[in-house]
Amino acid sequence: MKRSSAVERRAVLADEPVHKLPRQPYDDELDEEILDFYRDCLRALYRGKVPFLVGGACALAHYAGVMRNTHDLDVFVRRKDCKRALHALSGAGYHAHLTFPHWLGKAMLGDGYVDVIFSSGNGIVNVDDAWFEHAVPGIVLGLPVGLCPPEEIIWSKSFIMERERCDAADVAHILQALAPSLDWRRLIDRFGEHWRVLLGHLVLYDFVYPSERKVPAWVMRELLGRAMSEIDAEPAAEKLCQGTLLSRGQYLVDVDHWGYEDARLVPRGTMTQEDVAWWTACISRK
């Protein structure tokens, strides 16, 4: 797979023509006003010289051929660039604000939303330079963009296991399409101490596709070897719940009533009590 190390340096004029393209994930669902809003937001980020990548349904369609109607456009920026991105979108005439200080901003027009993402709901999947170094060139709504690398998409989607939304199928579809060409060492390193989450998705992948053996054998041996080495080890002394890294709602009983430490909170995690409280309070708004 061809990668670009200079996607963010690509210049695109604000009046770049919109070319005729294959169907986009949202073309059958949204009217032209919303699609123009998305295009204008991308151009505004270019005009503002804000480095960004496109992910979400657009990247999934590109990598795995999965077409899914969506009412938002996901752009990814470094944390340090989020304020500039929101300023550029606001300057283009749209309502833009920092929705959740620990990971997400938004720009809105009617039923259309542009999510400006610099981390993740659990606070651990941060957008850094490597996202841009390994970005993949693509076309979104007629404009050349950098797409989030498939390794980072797997990393971020692997932690989304909410009651109302689980991205395990997206992970499986990307693996089915790209497993032989992924940078597996980099992907394993991305998960770090949370490597069990990756192993869980790989085991599930083998269940979903029993006729496929696309994940390199050494990857499974390494991760299964780590798991085997811990079978007879003493359990952790801390009463810790890491389920909150997978779902913001389904493990609240553990941390609110059963005495478990919340793995999202500093110093173990990256979120403050205020971050968690605001993120939790908005569950009912989904």
Termini distance? 36 Å
Q: What's the SSE pattern?
A: HEHEHEEEHEEHHHHHEHEH
Mean pLDDT: 90
**Structural class by SSE content:** alpha/beta
- Overall structural domain count: 3
* CATH class annotation of the largest domain: Alpha Beta
Q: Mind describing the biggest β-sheet?
A: 5 strands, mixed
Number of H/I helices: 11
Compute the number of strand runs. 9
Can you tell me the residue ranges where pLDDT is under 50 for at least 5 consecutive residues?
A: 1-22
CATH architecture annotation name of the largest domain: 2-Layer Sandwich
Helix content: 25-40%
**CATH topology title of the largest domain:** Beta Polymerase, domain 2
Looking at the structure, what is the overall shape? globular
Rounded radius of gyration (Å): 20 Å
Give the spatial strand order of the biggest sheet.
Answer: 1-2-5-4-3
What is the percentage of strand-forming residues?
A: 5-15%
